[in-house]
Amino acid sequence: MIEIKTGRLILKKPTTKKDQISLVSQIEDWEVVRWFSKIPYELAMNCKDYLKMSNKNELDLSIFLDDKLIGGVGLALNDDDNYYELGYWVGKDYWGKGYATESSKYLLEYALRKLDSPKIKTGYFIDNIPSGNVLKKLGFKEVGIEKKYSEPNKKEMSMMFVELEFSSIKEELL
């Protein structure tokens, strides 16, 4: 089982009932879930389904601070286009402290060492400026804006798509 240690955080799978309770307390907040694109709000509210989905992907990890689950970060392979998609979220009480950037950076470093020159893509809803800032700090380049359906919001929203070529940032990360 993967466990990645950063300066302040540990990235790993949630394993205890305490982790599940913390997960639910973080993702039941509408201010957090409204920025999700793929996970419907109703699914996020069902912790067992969320954990089952998360456990299918070894690179879908939870973010722990001092033994408390505070968020999630992951890379999911898109087989059709042969790229990985980065996703992350942090509980509202932990916003603005650099945890999304730190956890994503360390997961990307891990991926660079373990995966064969992966291409990473992701996107953020343009109203979510802090998420855009995280991706810029990580070296992602803007590709363009498109409409994307948001399950939690039940409508199409403008999303900025970004991508990262590991070959162009390999020396920066490692």
Structural commentary:
The protein has one domain (4-173): Aminopeptidase, CATH 3.40.630. Helices cover 36% and strands 34% of the residues. It contains seven helices and eight strands, in the order ββααααβββαβαββα. It is globular and about 40 Å long.
Number of helices in the DSSP assignment:
7
Query: Can you say what the CATH homologous superfamily is?
Result: Gcn5-related N-acetyltransferase (GNAT)
Strand order of the largest sheet: 1-2-3-4-5-6-8-7
The strand count comes to 8
Features:
174 residues, alpha+beta, Aminopeptidase, 36% helix, globular
Topology of helices and strands:
Elements: E1 4-5, E2 9-12, H1 17-27, H2 30-33, H3 41-45, H4 47-55, E3 60-65, E4 68-78, E5 83-90, H5 99-114, E6 119-125, H6 129-137, E7 141-150, E8 155-165, H7 166-173
Parallel strand pairs: 5-6
Antiparallel strand pairs: 1-2, 2-3, 3-4, 4-5, 6-8, 7-8
A few lines on this structure:
The protein is an alpha+beta fold and 174 residues long. It has a single domain, classed as Aminopeptidase, CATH 3.40.630.30.
